[in-house]
Amino acid sequence: MSAAAPERTTARAGDLLDVDRALGDEERLIAETVRRFVGEHVLPEIEGWYERGVFPRELVPELGRLGVLGMHLTGHGCAGASAVGYGVACRELEAADSGLRSFVSVQGSLAMFPIWRYGSEEQKRRWLPGMAAGELVGCFGLTEPDSGSDPASMRTSARRDGRDWVLNGRKMWITNGGLADVAVVWARTDDGVRGFLVPRGTPGFTTRDIHRKMSMRASVTSELVLDDVRLPEDAVLPGVVGMRGPLSCLDEARFGIVWGVVGAARTCFETALSYARTREQFGRPIAGFQLTQQKLVDMAVELNKAALLAHHLGQLKDAGALTPEQISFGKLNNVREALRIARTARTVLGANGISSEYPVMRHANNLESVLTYEGTNEVHTLVLGHALTGLRAFQ
């Protein structure tokens, strides 16, 4: 007779398939280190930050010392971690709050990455070490008031005036905008779309924070205003022309989302499971009722599938084989399922699910934004539709 299998504890229930067994020693250390940091520096305060609608600027140097800012890049003070290592860091950050992971994603994948990939050596030396250390903050200016899913229709322009560039336009829904020491702004030129480094304090460049948000409240979201902003010739990123530049940056950020939302979903699932095991109705814990168990099982299955998908895409990225369509696959599936898990977890908690005493509604609200940014659910569906059929549903 075989021995009975040991009872799985709540702490392990979020990883039924033992996906983390596939992590290397360094990746496991990254996950443990970031989770410990989040537990000490973020979880005790995140509810208050969210309610007040603030992101604490003083946290940024701490993130720099942690080594997560631009951690998947090499040189210039960056850690040079593997894609899977970066992924597990995003997972542990978003397990606390999507706003925290979003800050790290924008700093590393949308602001530092284009400088690292397309910038001159002088630009890299000027900006990257300070950004990796959390001494400087960056943002990514692509989305405009009238062009979200269609960034190629941007109106922001840059024209030559002697040896200088003069920029005019507006960028909207820019994470970190109000905090940023430098903005990577994408603008139309006579030669095509180019990226420009716009330091804070440049005459004509201002930011306006967006308030009254119901989602991503522990995150700074801003409008960038460029009115005859004059920049020197060396402000342009020399290594890329055209939409390939900003779209490659978005792929980097989407990869972090694929992993990050697994963390948010895990927190919601584990909160619901713990609650169901202790909350009694009709004289017994609600975890003992069939319909509640069905909810818990459905959440666990989708959570583990999402974790497997994230790990697989991380391995592909480390092998240099990850495609944009595969990133769209991951973003589409994992955000959609994380949001479903958050909504289902809320029903397990009943009325308590809407209380800030529990993190579920905060994660659900945040995931509504994650479903939309870095490519909407519909856009990623059509990207995959094109990959399957060879026919474009949009330009």
From TrEMBL:
**One Pfam family of this protein, by short name?**
Acyl-CoA_dh_M
Q: SUPFAM superfamilies attached here?
A: Acyl-CoA dehydrogenase C-terminal domain-like (SSF47203), Acyl-CoA dehydrogenase NM domain-like (SSF56645)
Keyword set for this entry?
A: FAD, Flavoprotein, Oxidoreductase, Transit peptide
Every Acyl-CoA oxidase/dehydrogenase middle domain range: 139-229
Which cofactor is recorded for it? FAD
Q: Which InterPro entries match?
A: Acyl-CoA_DH_CS, Acyl-CoA_Oxase/DH_mid-dom, Acyl-CoA_Oxase/DH_mid-dom_sf, AcylCo_DH-like_C, AcylCo_DH/oxidase_C, AcylCoA_DH/ox_N, AcylCoA_DH/ox_N_sf, AcylCoA_DH/oxidase_NM_dom_sf
Pathway linked to the protein: Amino-acid metabolism; lysine degradation; Amino-acid metabolism; tryptophan metabolism
**Listed EC numbers:** 1.3.8.6
Segments traversing the membrane: none
Write down the chemical reaction(s) this protein catalyses.
glutaryl-CoA + oxidized [electron-transfer flavoprotein] + 2 H(+) = (2E)-butenoyl-CoA + reduced [electron-transfer flavoprotein] + CO2
Which enzyme class? oxidoreductase
- This protein's record includes keyword Secreted: no
Q: Which Gene3D superfamilies match?
A: Acyl-CoA dehydrogenase/oxidase, N-terminal domain, Butyryl-CoA Dehydrogenase, subunit A, domain 2, Butyryl-CoA Dehydrogenase, subunit A, domain 3
Domain named Acyl-CoA dehydrogenase/oxidase C-terminal: residues: 242-387
Q: Which residues form the Acyl-CoA dehydrogenase/oxidase N-terminal domain?
A: 25-135
Concerning its family, UniProt says:
Belongs to the acyl-CoA dehydrogenase family.
Question: What protein name is recorded for this chain?
Answer: glutaryl-CoA dehydrogenase (ETF)
- State the organism's lineage: Bacteria, Bacillati, Actinomycetota, Actinomycetes, Pseudonocardiales
